[in-house]
Write a structure and sequence with these properties.
single chain; 236 residues; alpha/beta; Rossmann fold; seven-stranded mixed sheet; four-stranded antiparallel sheet; 11 strands; 33% helix; globular; P-loop_NTPase; nucleotide-binding; ATP binding; transport; ABC transporter ATP-binding protein
Length: 236
């Protein structure tokens, strides 16, 4: 039986822009199974950033239900949401978001420090994560001593720390050249083969096509089931 790791039902989100209201998400529903590799593709202004923020528990919807591993997110207070973000979601960002004064291994250790993992154990866990993404030999390097692709591998290793059920990647290849982008996608594919659930948000059709499942977002609505170059079926 396939296990559901997260589900959204009838999610809407709007923002006030001066005197007008922008409907960023329009009554969408989405289910992600454990071990899935879901890509969500859409242009600027389509609602994908808002969707990412809600999936990542960085923002909450106006209406609807969001359940992540049994937790009903919209009913949780801020301190619990911070715990959810630390334990259940590994974030991978376009611009890596590494701390420049910390080494690769120290950057990977950060989420483990917040969890209270003891120093020796977290160093071992962090090095294991770096080895998983093929950069264990750069553990002592600072970010400015690494290439863009290497920095993104460190960022992926940091997301892996603590083995969260979901890896949420926001334009993870957006700051990389095409060859390095494909190397990063291969890292993500290998992690997915090992059982990690990945949700990747992108504007790049070539990246979107590499998911097991692809959803298009447009004007705050979700579409699934077709070719990414053509119209999908509305699943809201």
């Amino acid at each position: 039986m396939i296990e559901t790791v997260m589900s959204m039902n009838n999610i809407s989100k709007s923002y006030k822009m001066g005197e007008s209201t922008v409907q960023a998400l329009d009554h969408i529903s989405l289910t992600v199974s454990r071990g899935d590799f879901l890509t969500i593709v859409g242009p600027s202004g389509s609602g994908k950033s808002t969707l990412m923020n809600i999936i990542g528990c960085l923002d909450q919807s106006d209406t609807g239900e969001y359940i992540l591993e049994g937790d009903e997110i919209n009913k949780l207070k801020d301190r619990y949401l911070a715990t959810i973000r630390n334990k259940k979601i590994g974030f991978i960002f376009q611009n890596f978001n590494l701390l420049g004064k910390l080494s690769a291994i120290e950057n990977v250790e950060l989420p483990l420090i917040y969890r209270g993992v003891k120093a020796n154990e977290r160093k071992e866990m962090a090095l294991s994560c770096l080895n998983q993404v093929g950069i264990g030999d750069r553990a002592s390097h600072l970010p400015n001593q690494l290439s863009g692709g290497q920095q993104q591998r460190v960022a992926i290793a940091r997301a892996l720390a603590g083995n969260p059920p979901i890896l949420l990647a926001d334009e993870p290849t957006g700051a990389l050249d095409s060859r390095t982008s494909q190397e990063i996608m291969e890292v993500l594919h290998n992690l997915n083969k090992k059982g990690h659930t990945i949700i990747l948000i992108t504007h790049d059709l070539n990246v979107a096509k590499q998911g097991k499942r692809t959803i298009r977002i447009s004007d705050g609505k979700l579409y699934e089931g077709g070719d990414v170059n053509h119209e999908f079926v509305n699943i809201h």
